[in-house]
Design goal:
The protein is of the alpha+beta class. It has three helices and seven strands. The strands form two sheets. A four-stranded antiparallel β-sheet has the order 1-2-7-6, with no helix packed on it. A three-stranded antiparallel β-sheet has the order 3-4-5.
Length: about 150
């Protein structure tokens, strides 16, 4: 019976993992170089989530912008081969102090920059907003097919 081992309950194993998580969090808080190594962590929260796909010869980009007024708080620009979406979500301005249990929504400025395919003109880009989703469409340029050239001997 030398091969038998005492089994730990699931609670004890979970507690050990929790201790390691707390230890790592404390270590990261104590590191003086942390803000310099990871300067963009805070900015990632202000990034607009998007999806991008092709549909019938058109490149479609959808940005999730629920609760944002597209007439006042959304700006879509194209310059130097980049599509830039800027938006702002405003907090409830009733002045009431709320006793939040959880607050995961982001308020304030949001943005996203996406590189466009070569040759897309500003006039080709269209944008629409429906049910909290901004949809940007642009035609996909047809790539020239490669032609094989015969090499002659001289």
């Amino acid at each position: 019976m030398a091969g038998l081992m005492r089994r730990e309950s699931l609670g004890e194993a979970t507690e050990v993992i929790g201790r390691f998580d707390r230890l790592f969090d404390e270590w990261m808080r104590m590191m003086p170089f942390r803000p310099m190594l990871f300067p963009h962590w805070r900015e990632a929260g202000n990034l607009i989530p998007v999806e991008e796909f092709r549909e019938n010869g058109t490149l479609v980009m959808r940005a999730d912008l629920p609760g944002i007024d597209p007439d006042k708080d959304v700006e879509v620009t194209v310059s130097d081969g980049m599509l830039r979406i800027e938006a702002e979500r405003h907090a409830d301005e009733k002045g009431e102090e709320k006793d939040y249990v959880r607050q995961e929504l982001r308020y304030g400025p949001l943005s996203r920059s996406i590189a466009l395919p070569v040759g897309v003109a500003e006039a080709d880009v269209t944008a629409s907003y429906k049910d909290g989703v901004l949809e940007v469409r642009l035609p996909v340029l047809q790539r020239e097919t490669t032609a094989k050239i015969t090499v002659s001997k001289s």
